[in-house]
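hey can u check if this looks right to u? its 255 residues, i copy pasted from the old doc so theres a chance i mangled smth
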Amino acid sequence: MKDFLNLPPDWSAHGAPIDNLIALIHWVMLILFVGWGAYYILVLIKFRAGASPKADYHGAKGTISKYVEVAVVVFEVAILVAFAFPLWNERVAELPDENESERIRVVAEQFAWNFHYPGADGEWGRTAPELVDTAANPLGLDRDDPASADDIHTLNNLYLPVDKPIILYLTSKDVIHSLNLPYLRVKQDTIPGQTIPVHFVAKQTGESEVACAQLCGLTHYRMKGFLHIQSQQDYQSWHDERTQAAAAAAAAAGM
């Protein structure tokens, strides 16, 4: 069924249970489709005008359909309780250790993705809404905060290391967006005024898409980014280079 559904490749450590649940739901929907389709055809034949020339105003007295409907509801509840809720709880109940994880702020806006990495000090600089400038300072970073001197900001390009816990802290500057990383089986709304953590481990290097899965305005289609999953060595080299560049730019600006 998973091959038949043509799901995107799974590059995550947690993707298999999600794919299995998607396959299970489609099996159930297929059974329901065939069952109700057959019932519909049966009703068309049994209650056609030729077989029932006189209308029956008392209605059907059988209880089979009621039992079938109750069974469907019970089965759907069982799927939620036995599969969906435990899987969701496993994903949100506990975050990995921050000291052993790569932490990145994700700030959505119409119509772009801002990714904010802490520099060598491991701390994000202070941000404030009044400091936001779409062109010069999209994150609203306080340039007077020493912790911001080596912070890294990328636009529409998310760089991640392979085989290391990742924690993304999602928020939005304007409306509700939805971060969608299909190859990593991650899809989570970004909501103004809230910071929502998402964690995962990428198991394969490569490049994929960063998409917005929530209609967020007239040019929603433009809100597309690029995911770069690198080896630990390549990611560290990229991070060090960007950190040094940020620190040099801050020093030149007199921070």
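The beta strands are 102-109, 112-117, 152-155, 157-161, 165-172, 177-181, 186-190, 196-201, 206-212, 224-230.
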